[in-house]
Design brief:
Helix content is 40%, strand content 17%. It is built from 8 helices and 11 strands.
């Protein structure tokens, strides 16, 4: 998503993540152009008015580079001529602000299907499973009683099994704010999630000293167990 309005961006990004999408956000045209050039992406949600390069320029450059990823223009530019310009520049869909979130979500789903992408309602690793529709998390068939942040943290881990995940990356995705190295918020929630998971099985969240965390099999050298 490329959107400079912080309120809209926060609302949409949180909503899409709750639906199980992995979302990256750029808040200006320059960062957006860089992100588009370093895909691949399944769907792009793009504002028109942006600091730096505007959305129309980004879209034209994106198509000129041969990218066929579906693009949804999400903009306050409502005039018929502007909608025609956006679609002619290569947008696959066009939604005007203010908008209804359910409609945005339906359009994102439609664009995803056009790519042959059918988001799964379930995430799983080993005997851990999360139903993204009911928000039910289980391990070995046992329900896990998790707070909202513990649930979001588990989803992030399930999406990146076996990866070394830096604290900064985890915090900025789950909390949507810059990581404060002096805070123990992340460590506390990891501790609580570990307790919930380990009530029904072996350890899945492993600490790598000075590097972050790994979710999955016990890492070999360098793990601080």
């Amino acid at each position: 998503m490329i959107e400079d309005d912080a309120e809209i961006a926060d609302f949409v990004v949180r909503g899409l993540r709750e639906e199980g999408y992995t979302v990256e956000l750029a808040t200006n045209g320059d960062d957006g152009g860089h992100a588009l050039a370093h895909g691949p992406w399944d769907v792009v949600v793009l504002d028109w008015w942006l600091p730096g390069a505007d959305g129309l320029t980004l879209l034209r450059n994106f198509r000129k580079a041969g990218n066929s990823t579906p693009v949804l223009f999400l903009t306050a530019r409502r005039a018929l001529s502007e909608r025609v310009t956006g679609l002619d520049a290569g947008a696959d869909d066009y939604l005007c602000k203010p908008f209804d979130y359910e409609e945005l979500l339906a359009r994102v789903r439609a664009l995803s299907r056009r790519q042959g992408i059918v988001p799964s309602n379930n995430l799983a690793y080993s005997d851990v499973s999360v139903d993204l529709v009911t928000h039910r998390a289980t391990r070995a068939g046992h329900p896990l009683e998790l707070t909202a942040k513990e649930y979001a943290l588990l989803i992030f881990f399930l999406r990146h099994p076996g990866e070394v995940l830096a604290r900064t990356r985890i915090y900025e995705h789950v909390w949507d704010e810059r990581y404060d190295g002096l805070s123990n918020t992340l460590e506390f929630h990891v501790f609580q999630l570990r307790k919930a998971l380990e009530a029904y099985g072996t350890r899945l969240i492993h600490t790598l000293r000075g590097r972050g965390y790994v979710f999955g099999d016990d890492p070999s050298a360098g793990a601080n167990r």
